[in-house]
Amino acid sequence: MNDFSAFSSRATIADVAARAGVSTATVSRVMNGTGPVSEQTADRVWAAIADLNYAPHSGAREMAAVSRPKTLGLILPTAGGYFFSEMLQGIESAVGGHDLLIHVTNAPAGEREAFFLPLNEHNTAGLLVFANSLSVEAIRALHERSLPMVLLHCTPPPDLALPSVVFENMAGARRVVEHLIDVHGCRRIAFLAGPEEVEDAGLRFDGYRQALTGRRLVYDEAFVGQGGYDDRLAETAVSRWLAEGKQFDAIFAADDASAVGALTALRKAGRRVPEDVALVGFDDAPLSRHLSPPLTTVRAPIAAAGAAAAEQLLQLIETGQRCGQMTLATELVIRRSCGCED
């Protein structure tokens, strides 16, 4: 089991006050925003908090008061949609039987997010941190406070020894684009990219470009649009391409939600899938097999990733041993939207 004795020597609010040259009441007002404090004073307090890696102890007192079981924290950028519900099912399957609660929260925005996060080493046994939920600075601050963490769908900064679970994004993307080229003879393949700040999206973009160059096709940025993992953004992008008269024979959407948006835009323009334009996605969302036509996509093991991350976190909490990065394989799922028969 982890040695939690180190927590007893951690900084207190009195230490922060002494370092900043203010009263403990002033520190409390700064952190909670409950009273007027000059900007200069507030900056000194936040600098002291950062220097001392201070975290409020109120959560620990609350936990002790109700004698609740240990908690695992799951930090998400947003909570909703099939992806997160399926991932949570995987986490719950791994945690079941360990007398642990799962506390799901959205991370507060801003440069001081680590200090306002309701989950910390005083009330949480460990954290599962989803991609783009916390800044690198916040992750580093929590890591320096010896809080066990596992990252989901992103790799840690090079200087932090944190375990992580990711998908085989680049290879999966390359595989589905090569299928369009090799099996269906597609030569002008447009791409609906995911959010620029998301690591998975960048790797899927790289896989798309690798497939084109590997088959000696020209990569043209004019055929790259922003799908944003969002059906409405994707529909707008494809509608714009069609209005501009761009000629393409296939679309690779970086996720299935974007593929749905593309399908909507193509239908509104009178284009048939797959007869006029082949369409493929990524993730294998539950709705994908029920679309008309059913969507060819890359199956990502969403629930398995959640379970693997939770298992890594439990091992880290219980033994202190880190597993490093785990990459889960993806699988090409062939349906009619690419031109194949089911």
Structure explained in plain terms:
- By secondary structure, this protein is an alpha/beta fold.
- Among the domains are: 1-52, lambda repressor-like DNA-binding domains (434 Repressor (Amino-terminal Domain)); 169-301 and 332-338, Response regulator (Rossmann fold, 3-Layer(aba) Sandwich).
- 42% of the residues lie in helices and 15% in strands.
- The chain has 12 helices and 12 strands.
- It has helices at residues 13-20, 24-32, 39-52, 58-66, 81-95, 113-116, 136-144, 169-184, 199-214, 231-243, 256-268, 302-319; strands spanning 71-76, 101-106, 126-130, 149-152, 164-167, 189-193, 224-226, 250-253, 278-280, 297-299, 325-328, 331-333.
- The strands form 3 sheets. A 6-stranded parallel sheet has the order 2-1-3-4-5-11, covered by helices on one side. It has a 4-stranded parallel sheet with strand order 7-6-8-9, sandwiched between helices. It has a two-stranded antiparallel sheet with strand order 10-12.
- Helix 1 (13-20) crosses helix 3, helix 5 (81-95) crosses helix 12 and helix 10 crosses helix 11 (256-268).
- It is elongated.
- Mean pLDDT is 85; it is low at 1-8 and 58-69.
